[in-house]
Structures are given as C-alpha cells and as structure tokens.
Hints:
About 0% of the residues lie in helices and about 70% in strands. By secondary structure, it is an all-beta fold.
Amino acid sequence: MNKTLLAASLLTLAASPAAFAQDKMKPFTMEGEMGFIFTTGNTETTSISAGVTAHQELAQWSNDYNIEGLYKKETVETDGIEEERTSAQKFFASAQGNYKLDNPDYRLFGFASYEDDRLSNFDYQATLATGWNHKLYETDTQSFEYSIGPGYAFAETQEGEEQNGMIVRASAAYQWLISDTAKFTQTVSTEVGADNTKSRAESALTATISGNLSMKLSIKLDHNSNVDSDVEKLDTETAVTLVYNFF
C-alpha cells in the first residue's frame, strides 16, 4: 500500500490515552513535548525527541491523536578518523475515534497507526483496526479503558518483503492524577498477526514546573516478535522531556 495513503488515513481517525476526569468538559486539549541531548568529546551526539498528543471530547465522539519522533546522530573518532552515523530515526503516529453508544462508557472504535523506523527490521508498519472500546471506570483522580477488535496490518521489511494480513489488536490506558501538579500514565497495546506480533508500552510520570509547563520522565518499549537475526526484537527509550499544555 502507498505510504502516503497510509499516513493520510490517520487524519480520519483518532488513539489513547483518554483525557483525565478534570478535562472531560473541555472540547479539545493538546500538549507538546520535546527533549534534547548534546554531547562533545571523543563521541559527539545529537538526540532529539518530540511529540504531540491531543484529545477531543464531543457529545457523540471521544477522539485521541498521537504523533512522536526520535532522531539521534553520532560522530565517533576512531584512529584519528571521524565517522558520522545516524543511530536512530523514527516517526510514529496513531489515532483512534470512539463512537459513544447509549451508555457513553461503551463505544465502537476505529484505529489507525503508521510507523517509519529507519533502523528497525521494517521499512514501515501500519495498522487499521475497529472493534469495542470500554471506559471501565473514571473517578476524579483515575481512569482506565481498553479496546479490542480485528484489524489489518501493512508492513514492508528493509529487504522489500511485504507482510500484510489480518490481526487482532488490544490496548489499554490507565491514568492517575497523583496531585494537582503530578500525574502518572500507562499505555500498552499489542497487535497479533500470523507474520508478526507488534507490541508497544509507555510508562510516564509528569510533574508541573510552572503554569502550562511540565517535565516528563518516560520509558517506552517497542517489540516485534519476527525480525532478522541481526536485529533486536525489543527497542527501549528512556527520556526526560519538557511538556507544554497548549489547551
């Protein structure tokens, strides 16, 4: 499938996590995050991580959007010769739209995602899925929801081999407002297919610095069950970023 069409399909849908209870009356919330790491000396590195998440709460729909990217470049000197290499270049976007039934905690969802990780086993990976979403509980400080349903995965390896087929997708999102200035979020998802099982997870702790500006500590896990022998199945990313709440 054409990459442009896959990426464009994200604009029609929306992905967890859900908004906090205190934000549920807001029609739209959005926050952006960014982190930088620069080192000099025997090894020179430049690392940039960035992301945007948004939530839209309507009378009949509850929509979520997520975009994130990572770039890392290294300059290493060996025997007096400098070698510059890119050690990470990753883009991920996902979106999920939840259509509320008579009981607004029961929804039907549509999901789409697209990932381009230049240094992974895959040239790209994309997913379309639909099914059942349930907001299991929501209080003033905590919320939990899950989604499960069938879908279709599109993927192409670095060698040009296509891996397309039916999948079952399941995801869950938990949020805890620890205090007025701190929150914890946990998201996890898995897409089980005949060729590959792709799983993602993120644990994050966010603390307000001043006004709309916060600091976020996060750990991300990205796992593929079927990769080449010289490629790691699990990628991890630990980051400290600044987060700005636009709305």
